[in-house]
Design brief:
Elements (H helix, E strand, L loop, with lengths): L2 H10 L7 H42 L3 E5 L7 H9 L4 E16 L2 E10 L1 H7 L6 E4 L10 E5 H7 L6 E12 L2 E15 L4 H4 L2 E5 H7 L8 E6 L5 H11 L4 E5 H4 L1 H39 L1 H9 L4 H32 L1 H12 L20 H27 L3 H5 L3
Helix pairs in contact: 1-12, 2-10, 2-12, 2-14, 10-12, 10-14, 12-14
């Protein structure tokens, strides 16, 4: 490209008195591209953050992998756990007993999932111990029938640490009066809040020995939960463990247990990318109308340049420079705004909620009550390249049309 082509192309972007309207349309196109690019970066960052936060919170309470028996009972769990720990990818193992129950306190009744755990082992495979609002997980001791509740569950029942609550097991016991549910009084020794409503409102922890007594499990457990060094290798580790363990046990991992959550988030991210990309495309192709008006306004200038020896290719480059400048500036402004917002979503969103008195993510509706953000630079790079490509494509037709102007026809009425 010759210097004069760049000079003239940049000169045409500056408004003259009679071309203010064209410059206004150029400004709108530039702002449209910036808005679309910024929206894309922010939305994809929020979707990335949501995906990571959802994964962290689910796996902070659930498990990377677990070993269960064919009939939901597992005998000799110590040997199975020892076998699993021989795999170098397994970081920790903990037994558990899972059951259903109903909590009753002062006339309030609430259903819940009851998990029997060994506190020391449980701390190695889950993050509940780090999210205790009151008490400690280690306060669960065998034979003392203590219970740790999720914060929303404790609030629904109306209990606090130190209160005694009745746990009703659906496994009935046969009496002369018929089958009666099993009732046991527990003392609340702790309350946790992991920030995920599903678990905060529907999970209660008791000691493994107390769960075995309540659900008549004897020395059996429901399964063994595993924590892996690399959670993304869970399917491979599960397959390897399945080959090492007896045939009557089944190994599953988080990618199968919670696959729908993460698949839905990924699909939504892809759909939002396509939808918001249309905003960028519309703004980019506004450059077409801008350049068409510029070419119409500058026909005489183009004709003079042609008579002075400018080639059709040079004329085309002049208008490509003008259109590309709109696209580049719009993209750079959008990237700057989008990155700034994506890195400060945790500050901006609460401020908006406070000013307008609204809450975007209600705890009782969404799994996550705060809007997370995780900026991925490959996403920013892809958005930038696509925006620049669309802007460049939008300049081709008007520039080609300008290059085909006949100098004689253009100057006939000048």
């Amino acid at each position: 490209m010759h210097p004069y082509e760049l000079f003239i192309g940049l000169r045409y972007t500056r408004a003259k008195r009679r071309t203010h309207f064209i410059s206004f349309i150029s400004l709108i196109s530039m702002l449209g591209i910036a808005l679309g690019v910024a929206a894309l970066i922010v939305v994809l960052s929020v979707m990335n953050g949501f995906q990571e936060e959802l994964r962290a919170r689910i796996l902070g309470v659930a498990s990377h992998a677990q070993i269960v028996g064919a009939d939901n009972t597992l005998s000799g769990w110590q040997g199975i756990a020892a076998t699993a720990m021989r795999d170098k990818e397994v970081d920790a193992a903990a037994p558990y007993i899972m059951g259903q129950g109903m909590l009753s306190f002062d006339g309030a009744v609430q259903g819940t999932v009851v998990r029997g755990v060994l506190p020391r082992d449980e701390d190695r495979v889950a993050d509940i111990g780090r999210h205790m609002k009151a008490g400690k997980l280690s306060d669960l001791r065998p034979g003392e029938f203590g219970i740790v509740l999720g914060s929303e569950l404790a609030r629904a029942v109306g209990v606090s640490v130190g209160d005694k609550i009745v746990l009703i097991s659906p496994q009935g016991q046969v009496t002369p009066a018929g089958i009666l549910p099993r009732l046991k009084q527990f003392r609340v020794v702790g309350i946790f809040e992991v920030g995920m409503y599903e678990y905060d409102s529907g999970l209660a922890l008791i000691h493994l020995a107390d769960a075995a007594t309540l659900y008549r499990m004897g020395d059996k457990v429901s399964g063994v939960r595993l924590k892996l060094k690399d959670l993304y290798r869970a399917p491979i580790v599960a397959r390897d463990l399945q080959a090492m363990l007896p045939g009557d046990v089944y190994v599953t991992d988080w990618t199968r247990q919670h696959a729908n959550f993460f698949r839905a988030v990924q699909i939504e991210k892809n759909v939002m990318f396509v939808i918001l990309l249309l905003i960028v495309a519309v703004a980019a192709f506004n450059i077409v109308s801008t350049l068409v008006m510029v070419v119409t306004d500058k026909q005489a200038d183009v004709a003079i340049l042609r008579t002075l020896g400018a080639s059709p290719g040079s004329i085309m480059k002049i208008f490509v420079v003008q259109g590309a400048l709109i696209g580049v500036l719009g993209t750079l402004i959008g990237v700057a705004i989008g990155v700034a917002l994506a890195l400060n979503v945790e500050t901006v969103v609460p401020a908006i909620e406070h000013v307008f008195g609204i809450h975007f993510l209600a705890k009782d509706v969404y799994y996550i009550s705060e809007l997370p953000s995780q900026l991925e630079w490959p996403d920013v790079g892809a958005i930038t390249l696509i925006s620049l490509l669309l802007s460049f494509l939008a300049t081709l037709y008007p520039s080609w049309w300008a290059a085909r102007i006949n100098p004689v026809e253009a100057l006939r009425y000048e």
